[in-house]
Fold this sequence. Notes:
The protein has helices at 8-16, 20-23, 36-46, 53-57, 67-81, 84-88, 93-110, 113-118, 120-133, 143-153, 155-193; strands at residues 3-4, 136-137. It is mainly alpha-helical. It has one domain (3-153). α7 runs antiparallel to α9. It starts with a strand and ends with a helix.
Amino acid sequence: MKSEGPDLESMLRRVMETPQDFLAEPRLGASAGVGVAAVVGDLWRLLSHRPGPDVLALGAARGGSGDRNRLAVIMLLCWILADESFRRQPPSPEALRTLLGEGAEELAAQVTAAKFISDPHRREELVRFSLARVGLRPRGESVAQAQDRLTSLSSVERARVMKASRAAEQRAREIREALARKAAEESADKWTRE
């Protein structure tokens, strides 16, 4: 997030105006639909990079239960990254690969692609997440402001905090149960001695 990127409002508007082609059903196996690998390859070329087999594999169907949503999220990310501002100063291939790979999986595990279009908070999360993953922050924001806003919106972060909270609660429950057992054992020992 060290570099300043495009204006947040223009990117939010871009997401709201996502063309139907990028909202269509992704191809899963032999089914009809958009070939997401082709969309990823087109984005790579648009940003002056050469897509290799590893890049095209990012848009390939894997057959998992969340595959449709992951591919739909990748198409949205490709639409965001096809903006003129990214063409003038393209993100590195490594940053793009991380965003379209791990980043898309993280987002898809938490939110449906359709919700990134319809919900204003999820739309902002999608834009901020995309910018952050390619090392940018919205124009006019400091690094701290951009990070704070992303953290407050992040469904991925919220899921991580909830998981940590559940683990801490489970650990506290185990400790309480162990203390109760120990107190019961000590009480039984004391009763036996008397």
